[in-house]
Amino acid sequence: MSLSKLSAVSLALALALGMTACAPEVGSEAWCKQMSEKPSGDWSTNEATDYAKHCVFK
């Protein structure tokens, strides 16, 4: 693998890991705010359950 390809793959992996690390913890105030801004039709069953549990019925 050439150096430029290795660099590109490394950069892509670093960006992917960086984006997943920024997700707020389920149940946190930031997560509740993020979910309230997301259309409820796009919520998974688990997200809806967690939202009710952590954000509505505290």
Describe this protein's structure.
There is one protein chain. Helices cover 67% and strands 0% of the residues. The protein is built from 3 helices and no strands. The mean pLDDT is 86.
Question: Can you give me a brief rundown of this structure?
Answer:
With 58 residues, the chain is mainly alpha-helical. It has helices spanning 3-20, 29-37, 45-56.
Poorly predicted segments: none
Q: Output mean pLDDT.
A: 86
Question: What global shape is seen?
Answer: elongated
Please tally the helical runs, counting DSSP H or I stretches of 4 or more residues: 3
Count the E strands.
0
Oligomer: single chain
Distance between the termini: 53 Å
Q: What's the helix-strand series? A: HHH
Quickly give the structural class.
Answer: mainly alpha
Biggest sheet descriptor: none
Please render the helix and strand layout as text.
Elements: H1 3-20, H2 29-37, H3 45-56
